[in-house]
Design a protein that fits this description.
The protein is an alpha+beta fold and 281 residues long. The protein has eleven helices and eight strands.
């Protein structure tokens, strides 16, 4: 993020030498490019500094109250983050891009987890299974996974091309191979048309009307989609499912805990600030 902001500020600075220094006007009042750069720089710096001050206040409270996180918690959190990357090398390259070592990143994780623990302790958060069960029973609609269709798509530029592909399918051609061969969209080509699970509300109503009537293994006639035409096949139907209390219990505890922290964090921070001596150089 820091790199992105620096690049953006650099770009604006370079452009300032090439273009007019005025970027906007409010009535007769001009806003200069330099004003914009200064505001962005100060705003980002100020926001990040505030976040670090808040974290240090919580870490200071945690130290005084002997609150720590163990290595397993840090490693588990790190594993979650690494799982979002395609490989260990991709993760390490991202750290390199951010100019931070893995040990330094672990320290950031430790600080974050410790600050969160401090907040939980200050707010005396104790969510019982009974609390969770009550919330679950009163909000069951939140825990329904809607019906979804696993779809595969062939996208063509023209109606004639789409009709030709449709005739090939009717003659017994393989849908996956045709999508890889004929689709104009490079992502569809690469994935052999696989677009994953789609539930109602994710597509245009006119498309959903056609697609959600199909049985598994069936496909639509050519449909107008954007600037081209698509043939869409249903490969799997996942019926609506209501998650059980046991399935959702642990995640629900974290969500409710997070909601309590979000609602009360500002008051906690202001209270800690009133008891600390903060100097901004």
């Amino acid at each position: 993020m820091v790199k992105m902001v620096i690049m953006l500020l650099t770009s604006l600075t370079l452009n300032a030498a090439q273009k007019s220094d005025i970027v906007a006007k409010v009535d007769k009042i001009e806003i200069t490019r330099q004003e914009l750069i200064n505001k962005m720089s100060v705003s980002y710096f100020s926001r990040t500094l505030d976040e670090l001050i808040e974290e240090k206040l919580l870490l200071n409270w945690a130290e005084k109250n002997k609150i720590k996180v163990d290595k397993k918690e840090i490693e588990d959190f790190l594993k979650q983050i690494k799982s979002r990357f395609n490989s260990e090398n991709e993760f390490k390259n991202e750290l390199k891009r951010m100019n931070i070592t893995e040990e330094g990143y672990k320290k950031m994780i430790e600080n974050t987890l410790t600050a969160n623990k401090a907040l939980e302790k200050i707010l005396n958060i104790n969510i019982t299974d009974e609390d969770l069960k009550k919330y679950y029973e009163n909000n069951k609609n939140q825990f329904k996974i809607p019906k979804a269709l696993k779809l595969r798509q062939i996208y063509l530029n023209t109606e004639q091309e789409a009709n030709d592909v449709y005739l090939a399918l009717e003659a017994g051609a393989d849908f996956k191979k045709l999508s890889a061969l004929k689709s104009e969209d490079p992502v569809l080509k690469e994935k052999e048309g696989d677009i994953g699970f789609i539930s109602k509300g994710m597509l245009l109503p006119e498309l959903e009307k056609e697609i959600f009537l199909l049985e598994v293994g069936k496909y639509t006639k050519p449909l107008k989609t954007g600037n081209g035409y698509s043939i869409i096949k249903v490969e799997e139907i996942r019926e609506e499912k209501e998650l059980s209390f046991e399935e959702i219990k642990d995640r629900l505890r974290e969500v409710l805990k997070s909601n309590i922290i979000s609602a009360n964090r500002r008051n906690v921070i202001e209270n800690l600030k009133s008891q600390a001596k903060i100097e901004i150089k």
